[in-house]
Amino acid sequence: MSSATSIDMMKNNPRFMVAVLFLCLFLKTHVCHGADRISGNQTLTSDQTIVSAGEIFELGFFKPGNSSKYYIGMWYKQISKQTIVWVANREAPVSDKTSSVLRISDDGNLVLLNGSQIPVWSTNVSSSTASSSVRAVLGDEGNLVLEEDGGGSNSSRILWQSIDHPAHTWLPGSKLGYNNRTKENQRLISWKNSEDPAPGLYSLELEASTKSYLILWNRTQRYWSSGPWNGHIFEWVPEMRLNYIYDFKFVENENESYFIYSLYDNSPTSRFVMDVSGQIKQQNWMGNDWILFWSQPRKQCEVYALCGSYGSCNEKSLPFCNCLTGFEPNSQTKWDLNDYSDGCRRKTPLACESNGSVSNGERDKFLPMPTMLLPNHSVKAGSAAQCESTCLNNCSCTAYSLNDNDCLIWIGDFLDLEQLSEDDGTGRTFYVRLAASELPNPKKKNGVVIGVAVGSAVGISVFLCLIVFVILRRRKKILKPGKTVEGSLMAYDYRYLQNATKNFSEKLGGGGFGSVFKGTLPDQTVIAVKQLESVSQGEKQFRTEVSTIGTIQHVNLVRLRGFCSEGAKRLLVYDYMSNGSLDSHIFREKTSNLLDWKTRYQIALGTARGLYYLHEKCRDCIIHCDIKPENILLDSQFIPKVADFGLAKLVGRDFSRVLTTMRGTRGYLAPEWISGVAITAKADVFSFGMMLFEFVSGRRNSEQSEDGKVKFFPSWAASVIIDGGDVLSLLDPSLERNADVEEITRVCRVACWCIQDDENRRPTMGQIVQILERVIDVNQPPVPRSLQVFVDDQENVIFYTESSSSQSSQTRSNTSTASSQAKSTTSSKNSLS
Ligand SMILES: *[C@@H]1O[C@H](CO)[C@@H](O)[C@H](O)[C@H]1NC(C)=O
Ligand SMILES: *[C@@H]1O[C@H](CO)[C@@H](O)[C@H](O)[C@H]1NC(C)=O
Ligand SMILES: *[C@@H]1O[C@H](CO)[C@@H](O)[C@H](O)[C@H]1NC(C)=O
Ligand SMILES: *[C@@H]1O[C@H](CO)[C@@H](O)[C@H](O)[C@H]1NC(C)=O
Ligand SMILES: *[C@@H]1O[C@H](CO)[C@@H](O)[C@H](O)[C@H]1NC(C)=O
Ligand SMILES: *[C@@H]1O[C@H](CO)[C@@H](O)[C@H](O)[C@H]1NC(C)=O
Ligand SMILES: *[C@@H]1O[C@H](CO)[C@@H](O)[C@H](O)[C@H]1NC(C)=O
Ligand SMILES: *[C@@H]1O[C@H](CO)[C@@H](O)[C@H](O)[C@H]1NC(C)=O
Ligand SMILES: *[C@@H]1O[C@H](CO)[C@@H](O)[C@H](O)[C@H]1NC(C)=O
Ligand SMILES: *[C@@H]1O[C@H](CO)[C@@H](O)[C@H](O)[C@H]1NC(C)=O
Ligand SMILES: *[C@@H]1O[C@H](CO)[C@@H](O)[C@H](O)[C@H]1NC(C)=O
């Protein structure tokens, strides 16, 4: 803070500046405020910092989180949330910053001396240069350079630079690769945890022989690879095709191989981080926070050994790691800092380990854990029938599972157990060995049954009375579901919803945010209850968000009736839509109704109106972020209602995590989702356009044709429209050419405008409504560039624009020319109508 003020004063007050300069000359030993270098016999200590010339980066002492230790670090000068990009003494912290100093040593190295004047860190270069001719300069690209005057002239020699020794962050302009002369590999290495910058278990490095980047655990075990460089992209990172904000280069010669990237001028501040989560993450600063745009491995649970031994990973819970029943973290402190690597330990030793001296003498038991992804390194052990006893009789056996007719057992600790969601068909039941006392008590569970048995023995009349009593009590409860919170929004009891949905027995569907169940209220109103998954928000924030969503009411939006927030449970209660979601009608699953063209047109219009309301008519503009046929519901009159709006915000800011865990969504995602710029309402416009094409064709844009080749429907439709071809040939064959040619043309044209790469060229939802209402006309669209379909490892469908030239920068400049034209000559409105 004080340095910022003094800089301002320096700028505004020349006299003050002269005074400061004079002071600097006079004292000599300390670094000046605002200086970009440590030179000669200057020192940096305590709260002093150096700042790069353009005020981009700052370097000085810092303390991570609640840690008591200090490090020399580099961070962004202008970003309010201190974000460390480089740490000098990762493994050698100092306990006090006032007595520690960073200075140029007599042998010309930059050294950090602790309170006892003992060097704890050094640049460690061998140069016999006098300290007076050496300086350490912090550059605007985030590089601390130790340089030496080159004998009189203005040239200087670089002795050492921090970008050759990256920590956990990879900044634009810095190399990450392999030096074939020194045989040194530069690695990005994660911090141990959020409060300890010491090198952790996860690292990213180049494997020069395959030209691939790998993420390794403990520098040895690989769990992710970028795939080989093919001249344009890394094979398994097809997102790189969309070079909107980065200019990537892979350089290889006899001296070194490396990868380097730079940002275009107007790109947001961006960085790659090898995160403590074991994922490589690309984050962009969006004015008030870092927003995640890309990460690999995409699933958190794919990180090797993330939860340690006896931990279980669950992609849909926060935190991701939990100790198995009967186990507790080895180190609660680290666990709380999201460092799970130490794993878990038994609360109670196994009976077999206790040499039979357990007090109650009970043998160990097995706890079944359904729908698990099994850990590796199992051993096949005889027949399935004897699996349990085989394991029980060998004290080193910690778990077993049955796989078809095989018995698999695990000897000793196991890693990478993953809890899958209930409907995942690949899950298996995993039986964990526990001391008998750690198993959940089965007697409690059967309490009611035992009670009933006893009751019937005593007398049936008593039993009947009991039932009547229970029913009466339930009735009473049902009559009091909760309180009205805001407007018409109800706060429901969990038990009440449990009853209404018959204990969540009738599942209507599952989305990215959780499963939906059908329920019936006592007054016979049918409702849909959504059980939210992985909500990271606290109760208060949740209620605030929910009441905001509750105030949003429109005939084309699904109405939120109420919610439930009890303990960790978060549920939303909606009106029930008797005709289900649009996908089942459009894509004709089983016996669903065939929607005629008129209905489809009305659905398109209604959906557009609903989105227009969300974007422009609510108090806060809401971007839906997940427009697709699954999220358009139909009531009994086939009036479309947009569902799931506002949920991205409810679940948390990290949209990308939410989205990437949703299957099949990506076919509707606008390119900017992957490219890393801020998301605007135009992202919904893109998805809506994709959906319009599907209204016409009656099949998914991503569907493959019979010969296995993908014909991208939007491009084909555009060419038919533009060439004045047979418009009715585009129509869903089930409609047997029964449709209005003018309407199909109108829908296809507006859809083409919607899926333009450049969001400035896409219409607003308001314009789309007017076009569909025939208030305004729509021009002949440009042909959408042929998109490439890519199905990734999680069966997400992603579309990529095929770059017209091999040079990404050229693609880029084409796009920006188009958008600047749109801005300067005709506004995007004019070009539309
Ligand atoms: C550094 O300090 C020494 C004495 O301690 C002095 O002789 C020398 O001139 C100083 N160098 C600079 C660059 O100020
Ligand atoms: C630091 O500790 C306090 C109290 O123990 C806690 O509330 C706070 O969240 C901690 N801060 C961080 C960054 O961990
Ligand atoms: C400085 O480092 C040395 C060696 O690691 C250590 O013995 C000494 O206690 C440290 N001094 C302070 C003040 O931390
Ligand atoms: C400096 O280099 C020497 C050998 O070149 C090495 O033994 C020492 O550990 C290094 N010190 C640091 C702090 O890197
Ligand atoms: C540095 O010297 C070179 C010639 O050696 C000259 O071209 C260049 O302009 C000089 N730069 C500055 C900043 O003086
Ligand atoms: C990582 O590997 C080293 C040997 O290379 C080993 O000593 C260490 O125990 C390993 N760390 C963990 C957490 O397994
Ligand atoms: C690396 O250097 C060796 C000689 O030290 C050379 O044979 C080899 O071709 C170099 N590798 C590359 C990729 O140029
Ligand atoms: C490799 O290094 C040598 C010696 O420094 C240099 O002469 C040569 O030009 C370098 N090659 C490339 C391709 O940079
Ligand atoms: C079981 O006995 C062995 C030696 O007989 C001893 O080393 C071990 O600690 C005992 N285990 C327990 C849990 O008491
Ligand atoms: C674990 O097993 C899975 C599936 O069998 C395999 O893909 C993966 O590479 C294995 N991991 C290790 C570390 O062996
Ligand atoms: C337990 O099973 C493992 C794997 O089959 C075997 O190596 C080990 O010897 C067995 N231990 C005992 C005590 O039977």
From TrEMBL:
It catalyses: L-threonyl-[protein] + ATP = O-phospho-L-threonyl-[protein] + ADP + H(+); L-seryl-[protein] + ATP = O-phospho-L-seryl-[protein] + ADP + H(+). Keywords: ATP-binding, Disulfide bond, Glycoprotein, Kinase, Membrane, Nucleotide-binding, Serine/threonine-protein kinase, Signal, Transferase, Transmembrane, Transmembrane helix. It is an enzyme of class 2 (transferase). ATP binds at K530. The chain crosses the membrane at residues 448-472. InterPro entries: Bulb-type_lectin_dom (IPR001480), Bulb-type_lectin_dom_sf (IPR036426), Kinase-like_dom_sf (IPR011009), Pan_app (IPR003609), Prot_kinase_dom (IPR000719), Protein_kinase_ATP_BS (IPR017441), S_locus_glycoprot_dom (IPR000858), Ser/Thr_kinase_AS (IPR008271). Pfam families: B_lectin, PAN_2, Pkinase, S_locus_glycop. It comes from Ziziphus jujuba (Chinese jujube). PROSITE patterns: BULB_LECTIN, PAN, PROTEIN_KINASE_ATP, PROTEIN_KINASE_DOM, PROTEIN_KINASE_ST. Residues 803-833 have a biased composition (Low complexity). It comes from the Eukaryota. Residues 1-34 form the signal peptide. Residues 502-776 form the Protein kinase domain. Residues 352-435 form the Apple domain. Gene3D superfamilies: Bulb-type lectin domain, Phosphorylase Kinase, domain 1, Transferase(Phosphotransferase) domain 1. Residues 802-833 are annotated as: Disordered. Its EC number is 2.7.11.1. Belongs to the protein kinase superfamily. Ser/Thr protein kinase family. It is found in: Membrane. It is a single-pass membrane protein. This is Receptor-like serine/threonine-protein kinase. Residues 35-159 form the Bulb-type lectin domain. PANTHER family: OS07G0415500 PROTEIN, RECEPTOR-LIKE SERINE_THREONINE-PROTEIN KINASE.
